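Example record

One chain of 251 residues, shown exactly as stored in the release files.
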Amino acid sequence: MASKKSAVANPQLASKIGIWAKKHNLIEDAYISRLIPSVEKGADLDYWSGYDATEMMPYPEIKSGLRENSLSERLITFRNIMVFVPVAFTWAGISQATTAFSSYSESNPNKIVNFFDFWENGYGVLSKFWTLSNIARIDFLLLTLVIIASIAIAYLQQTSKVRRNAEKAEIDQERLHLALDINEFTFKFKALTPVILNQSISAAIRDLRASTSSVGKLMKSSEKSAAELAKGSAIRQQLGSIQKLIEKFQK
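Predicted structure tokens for this chain:
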């Protein structure tokens, strides 16, 4: 970095940069940590004028919505597991029912019983927990839990998205305003190059044209007012002549 020192310093801008960097935990960033002392002391500003702050400034981390994202990820894992629980539970019930039915049939060879009827009633062999109606009831509760989890996941993800987008918009605007302040301050210390000279001349020409246009409009307005005033004077003269002629006839 050049060792040239500038007599111009901007401690207010340096403080503003430091507050922004501390707020977003970016005080150790290479660009920020070197820019602040230079702006505060007015040193090497010609060097920093060669950098565009809108490109060099770091992007703060977006922290909104992290809790919602974490919770939704856990719910996704839970839902993915729970999707298979009703299937596994139903097959376990079928296994229990078939085993009990087989045992009942061996013990009562002369009795003809429908399997689904046996599964529902148990006939004193199958536990009530594994009966068909109870399994259906439990499957319904498990599937309802999966549906609730899916709704909660969608809500959390949408909430996280809205909050993150809002924070991102706020951070981007804050970063852009600060970057433009930096560019505006360092621009005057840019080394004079043909490009910068052309830009300055173009800006001066635009300002001159705008001023000339304003003066031209003012002159036209003044001429119009003068013409109207002159026209008014002629009318008054004519009225005066008519009045004198009337007085003459009256005499």
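Notes: Residues 1-6 have pLDDT under 50 and may be disordered.
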